Structures are given as C-alpha cells and as structure tokens.
C-alpha cells in the first residue's frame, strides 16, 4: 500500500510526445549494452529494468520537438545520470563510504574538459565510459560558454550524492528551507535545463545567461522538478534506500505533518514555483531583452529555451506517472491512459488530473500577492540563539559614537527630504538609539580609532540608504526614478579617483566621502571589485522595490540569496579579501570551501537581523523582506513555527561554518600547498568572521532600533520607514580593512 495518495497537480502546459520515441528506446538500449551499464556482473540494471524505467519515453515527453539524433543523445544522457545514481547508491551509499565516494567523483571531472587538449583517462567503470562517450558527442555543437555551464551543473549534480551521503551518515534531515536551497544547488534539474538548450538548439546568450530573470526561470523550474520527483520517489527513497533528502520527509519532521498532509504541502510548493516561473517569463523577460539590446535571434533562442522548460515540466510529470521507477499507482484522479505514440497529445493524459483552484491560492500564487501590510503582530519571542564565539568591544567606542553623529549631520542625514516637506528619514535621537558604534566596536575590537570611525560611518551610511530608499521611491512606486537614482551611484565611485558629480542627496554625499576614504590605498583592480560589490548591494534594492510594487512575498531561496546582497555580504567579503590578497591567491577565495565559509557567516548574520526586526518590519513598516514572514507565507505556518525554522536554519549555518573551519580549511590549505604566512592569513580571516558574527548578534541584543517604545515614536511628521538594516550591520566589518 502506498504511503499517501498523489495530490492533484497544477499543470498549465500541454504534455506532448516526440514521434521518434521508439527509435530512442532502441538506440539507448544498445548504447547501454556498449557502455557496460547492463553488465550482469554489476547486478545493478538488466535490460528488463531499463525497459521498464523507459527513459526513451521520458525524453520523448520532455523534448517533444527534438530531431531523432538529438533525442537519442539526450536519452543516453538520462540513462547515464540515472545509472550513476543507482551505481553510487549500491557502491557507496549503502556502505556509507564517504572517502571512496569522493575519490570516485573527483575522477569524473577529467572526462568533461571544457577545452579538450587530448584523450580522457582510460575509463574504469560504465559511469566513466558513458560520460566520456557522451561528452565527445555533445561538445562539437556547443559553445565554450555552454560547456562551462554544463560542466558546473554536472559537477553540482554529482556533488549532491556526497551531500546526501553526509546527511545519511549523520542521520540528519535538512531544515525545509535549507533542503530546498541545497536541492536547487545540487539537484539534477539545472543539469536538465542545460540539456534543454542543446535539444532545442537554442543556447541562452552569454550576455543574459547569468542575469537574475534567467536564474529565476532556471531555479523555479528546478524546484518544481525536484519537488515533483520527491512526491513520486518517496516510497522508494525513504522506504527502501533510507534516504533522508526528500521534501515530503522534511515536511513531516519539521512541521509535524502526517505523510498525506506533507505530500499535499509539497504539491503546493510545486504550484508556487510554477506561478513564479510564469510571472518571471511574462514580466521580466521583455525588459531584460531591451536592457541588453538582444537581437531577434537571441530573443527567439531565449523564448525557445523557456518553451523547452515548459515542455519538460509537463513531460516529466507524464513520465513519472508511467515509469516503474516511481510510486504512481494510487491517485485521486483517474489512472493514466496508454501512451499515444503518434505525435503531440494535446493537453496530455495528466491534464485530466489538473485542478487549478488550489494552486491559485497556494504559496507563490495569488496568495503571495495578497499580503496585508502593517498588520499588528506584536514582539516576536526570540528562540534560543546559538553563538559559540564571544564578542569583544573596541576601547575607542565612545569616540566613534560622537564622530558618527557629527559625520551624519555633515552629510545631511537629519535634513528634510527634497520635495517631501517636513519629512526626514532620521533624527539625531534615532541615530543615538541605533548606536552603530557598538556594532562597529564589537566587529572590529582591535581597530585603531580612525579605522573604527570609518567602519561606523559605513554602517551609518548603509542603514540610512536602506531607510531612505523605500521612503522616497517605495511610497510612490517609482521604479523609473529608483533606477535613475541607482545608476547615479556608480559615478561617486570612480576607479581613477577623479572628481565626482555634485551630490544631490545625503546618500551620494556620504558614498563619495566613504569611497575616497576607503579606495585610495587600493589598486585599480581592487577598486573595481570593491565597486562591483557596492553595486550588487544597491541594485538589490530594486528587487525589493519590484516585490513591493507587486505586493509579492518572495520565495525563501530567492530571498536568502538576494538577502546576502541587500545585507551587503559580497561587499564585506570582497573588502576583507582585499586586505589579504597579497598573501592568499584569489583562486583560493573562489573555491567552494571559501564561498561556503562566507555564505554561512553571511546567512547567520542576515537571519539574526530578521528574527530581531520582525515586529519593526512587519507591523511598523509593511516590509515584505523578512525571512520569518517569507517562511510563514511559503510554508503556511504561524510566526512561532516560522521563527523556529529560521533559527534552526541559522544554527545550521553556524554549524556549517564550524565544520568548514575544522575539516575543510585544513584540506584546502594542503591541496594548495599554502605556506605558513598564507595559512596564518586564512586563520586570521576566520577569526575576523567569528568576531563579526558575534558582534552582529551583540549589537542586535543592545540596539534600541527594534524596541517597540521607539518604533511608536518615529521622527516628527514622518511616517514609518525602512527595511532590513542590511548593509549597515555588515558594513561595520568594512572600515577596518
């Protein structure tokens, strides 16, 4: 008996069948024999099992318009990737051989060179043999840019196996938000999205491939594919394989749902992702085309790619309903009819199971656009926060307190806003209550007085800018004005340190002053990286404004990734690296280990802010960008449950930080054969991040920025303003660099 009934699915796109399905089946069967995938001595697959799983049908449904040779090639890719999954299970997951698994995965990279310079190594097993063959057949038709993206997504796909094995070894079920984020990073759907480009003969232009709209399309596609697979594979993965990386199980464990309710909740998230996909395709692609000046061919390629992702969604669902690999017997709707092999099938068999109403009101659908702002929520009781490091305080604290007020006054931060009579963002009293010098002093406990001042000024500037932006542009929904405002900021960060335009507001005045204080000692290349980090942060304000204009609560993974930008994380980390750049090569800072260290620290700080600022942002500002609210909306839970999930996620980020420091950094240092000076630099960088996280938490416990008594008394003749303190908190880490 199945553990739950399959829910009713939202499928807005027609499922169609490629007429070359039979030739793909015959070809891939022969190919599997040639590669040794059906070797009886392995005991993993035989011909009957391969036929029952029917990957030819999968690819015929997911790529209904592909020519016969491309359908054969794509089908071989899917046979390879599913065989890899089962081969890895039998060889490493069941024995929990983490060391052997890592060595096995490391070898596979040699079979996918972006720029081949010679033959690959001699394959030692069917996985390596199949990968070498597929890569040689695929790359002649693809650009170097596509190859690099496909190599990355394949590597991420393979790395998923290590992440899943690590969770099994630890007996750990991931936090719901962590699960969705990791599933997106290392799951197979981004890999499938790259193959959509190949099958459609429509590469996404390099100019827009890394843009936010294209990333959202890929990520929402991936979420829906992964979560759909979790529903169909729950019985096999959880019951037979002892797998812990399954969305249904995650919902059971963390929200206390029974299995049926958890499955229904996962289905709601699938609907959420599809609605976000549609919203992005309709509202964000046209301005993206214009912004980059894409020619007609490039625009048609992007649209063909989007259509290919739509085909994959419906086709993948149709295949899951038929494949012997998955649970697909008990459904609330009629069972699937026999496959039609003659060509397009109109709405497809699964359309009989579509019920639109639940999706339209689920997370990410209409519900995500109907948030009621400024509702009374009251103070949020803080859960027990995990912090293994002790904050220290800089002895120059009092001087920086005084100097920050004087600097803010000089920059005009207490003045009335032009065109808004009687309206000021801050008063001196408000700045006193925020007490950013405490944050700067705890984050930079050993900095001399002048450096601590600069650190405090960055914090003051960033938080003022974050408060200024929604007052001036949010209340008027003025996206055009916001873009012009944002574009002007780069002029106040000249790489050659030439003169800047006359500033017209406190943000421009403060940025120009801080730029010259901070950038003068840097090389021009370092200034370019520094400026890009500032621009990433300021551009993220436009994303927040777009969500407010649509009254859209963002999804958690998009929120967390963008929160690092709104919080100024990349700015902070880039400046810290600049201080160490002569001792440690940029290549090391670009490794997965170092990015994991940075991201885990940044996420911890961001989430501390969201827990502490919940009442301020939701009740007094009408803010949408707070992780507690985001989790509430996404998972349909109450604030206390959401806060517990956010705290659990925050704790897992800190545990991840500790794990990287204890186990991964020593391995990284050995791999790069770092000398003593470089190792000391890395140790110092870790100590700074520890001070930083402890200082961020200390400031949140001491500041009165979030006190209800202060929130009820805004500056005279103003309305509540603001948003996440974001950069302000992180920027304190900058000044001492």
Description:
This is Terpene synthase. InterPro entries: Isoprenoid_synthase_dom_sf, Terpene_cyclase-like_2. It comes from Streptosporangium oxazolinicum. Its EC number is 4.2.3.-. With 737 residues, this protein is mostly helical. The protein contains 33 helices and no strands. Helix 3 (55-62) crosses helix 4 (68-93), helix 4 packs antiparallel against helix 6 and helix 17 crosses helix 19 (436-443).
List keywords for this structure.
magnesium; disordered C terminus; 737 residues; metal-binding; mainly alpha; single chain
Q: Biggest sheet, in brief?
A: none
- Residue stretches low in confidence (pLDDT < 50, at least 5 long) are 330-367, 716-737
Basic shape: globular
Distance between the termini: 62 Å
Q: Please identify the structural class as seen in this structure.
A: mainly alpha
Count of individual helical segments: 33
Oligomer class? single chain
* Strand tally: 0
- Average pLDDT for all residues: 84
β-sheet strand percentage = under 5%
| Helical coverage, percent range | 55-70%
Radius of gyration, Cα only, in angstroms? 27 Å
Write the layout of secondary structure elements.
Blueprint: H1 21-35, H2 47-53, H3 55-62, H4 68-93, H5 98-108, H6 126-138, H7 144-170, H8 176-186, H9 189-200, H10 206-209, H11 212-240, H12 247-255, H13 259-283, H14 285-292, H15 296-320, H16 356-361, H17 397-411, H18 428-434, H19 436-443, H20 449-474, H21 479-489, H22 506-519, H23 524-550, H24 556-566, H25 569-580, H26 586-589, H27 592-612, H28 614-620, H29 627-635, H30 639-671, H31 676-702, H32 708-711, H33 727-731
């Amino acid at each position: 008996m199945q553990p739950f009934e399959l829910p009713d699915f939202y499928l807005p796109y027609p499922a169609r069948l490629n007429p070359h399905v039979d030739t793909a089946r015959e070809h891939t069967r022969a190919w599997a024999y040639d590669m040794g995938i059906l070797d009886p001595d392995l005991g993993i697959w035989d011909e009957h099992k391969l036929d029952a799983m029917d990957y030819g049908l999968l690819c015929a449904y997911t790529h209904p318009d592909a020519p016969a040779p491309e359908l054969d090639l794509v089908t071989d890719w899917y046979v390879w990737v599913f065989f890899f999954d089962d081969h890895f299970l039998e060889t490493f997951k069941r024995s929990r051989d983490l060391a052997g698994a890592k060595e096995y995965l490391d070898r596979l990279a040699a079979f996918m060179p972006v720029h081949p310079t010679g033959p690959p190594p001699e394959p030692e097993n069917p996985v390596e043999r199949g990968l070498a063959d597929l890569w040689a057949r695929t790359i002649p038709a693809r650009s170097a840019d596509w190859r690099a993206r496909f190599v990355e997504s394949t590597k991420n796909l393979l790395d998923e196996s290590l992440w899943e094995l690590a969770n099994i070894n630890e007996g750990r079920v991931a936090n719901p938000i962590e699960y969705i984020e990791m599933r997106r990073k290392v799951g197979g759907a981004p890999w499938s999205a790259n193959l959509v480009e190949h099958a459609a003969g429509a590469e996404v232009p390099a100019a827009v491939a890394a843009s936010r709209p294209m990333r959202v399309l890929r990520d929402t596609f991936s979420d829906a594919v992964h979560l759909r697979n979790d529903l169909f594979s729950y019985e096999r993965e959880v019951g037979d394989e002892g797998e812990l990386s399954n969305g249904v199980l995650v919902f059971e464990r963390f929200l206390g749902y029974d299995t049926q309710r958890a499955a229904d909740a996962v289905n709601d998230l699938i609907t959420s992702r599809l609605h976000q996909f549609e919203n992005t395709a309709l509202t964000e692609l046209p301005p993206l085309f214009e912004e980059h000046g894409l020619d007609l061919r490039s625009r048609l390629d992007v649209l063909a790619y989007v259509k290919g992702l739509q085909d994959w969604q419906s086709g993948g669902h149709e295949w899951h309903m038929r494949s012997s690999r998955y649970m697909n017997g008990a459904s609330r709707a009629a069972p699937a009819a026999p496959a039609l092999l003659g060509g397009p099938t109109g709405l497809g068999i699964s359309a009989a199971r579509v019920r639109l109403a639940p999706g339209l009101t689920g997370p990410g659908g209409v519900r995500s656009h109907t948030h009621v702002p400024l509702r009374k929520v009251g103070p949020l009781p803080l859960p027990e926060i995990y912090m293994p490091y002790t904050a220290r305080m800089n002895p120059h604290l009092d001087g920086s307190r005084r100097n920050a007020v004087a600097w803010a006054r000089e920059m005009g931060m207490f003045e009335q806003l032009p065109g808004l009579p009687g309206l000021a963002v801050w008063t001196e009293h408000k700045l006193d209550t925020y007490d950013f010098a405490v944050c700067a002093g705890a984050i930079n406990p050993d900095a001399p007085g002048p450096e601590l001042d600069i650190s405090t000024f960055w914090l003051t500037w960033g938080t003022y800018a974050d408060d200024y932006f929604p007052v001036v542009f949010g209340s008027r929904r003025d996206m055009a004005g916001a873009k012009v405002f944002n574009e002007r900021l780069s002029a106040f960060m000249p790489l050659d340190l030439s003169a800047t335009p006359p500033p017209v507001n406190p943000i421009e005045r403060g940025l120009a002053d801080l730029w010259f204080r901070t950038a003068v000692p840097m090389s021009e290349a370092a200034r370019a990286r520094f400026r890009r980090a500032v621009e990433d942060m300021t551009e993220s304000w436009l994303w927040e404004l777009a969500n407010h204009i649509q009254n859209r609560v963002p999804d958690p993974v998009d929120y967390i990734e963008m929160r690092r930008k709104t919080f100024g994380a990349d700015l902070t980390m880039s400046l810290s690296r600049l201080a160490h750049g002569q001792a440690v090569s940029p290549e090391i800072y670009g490794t997965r280990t170092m990015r994991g260290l940075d991201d885990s620290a940044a996420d911890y700080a961001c989430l501390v802010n969201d827990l502490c600022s919940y009442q301020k942002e939701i009740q007094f500002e009408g803010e949408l960008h707070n992780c507690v609210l985001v989790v509430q909306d996404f998972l349909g839970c109450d604030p206390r449950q959401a806060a517990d999930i956010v705290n659990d996620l925050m704790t897992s980020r800190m545990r991840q930080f500790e794990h990287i420091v204890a186990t991964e950094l020593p391995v990284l240092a050995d791999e790069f054969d770092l000398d003593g000076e470089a190792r000391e630099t890395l140790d110092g960088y870790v100590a700074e991040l520890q001070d930083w996280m402890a200082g961020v938490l200390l400031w949140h416990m001491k500041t009165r920025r979030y006190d209800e008594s202060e929130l009820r008394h805004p500056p005279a003749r103003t309305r509540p303003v603001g948003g996440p303190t974001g950069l302000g908190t992180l920027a304190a880490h900058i000044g001492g660099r």
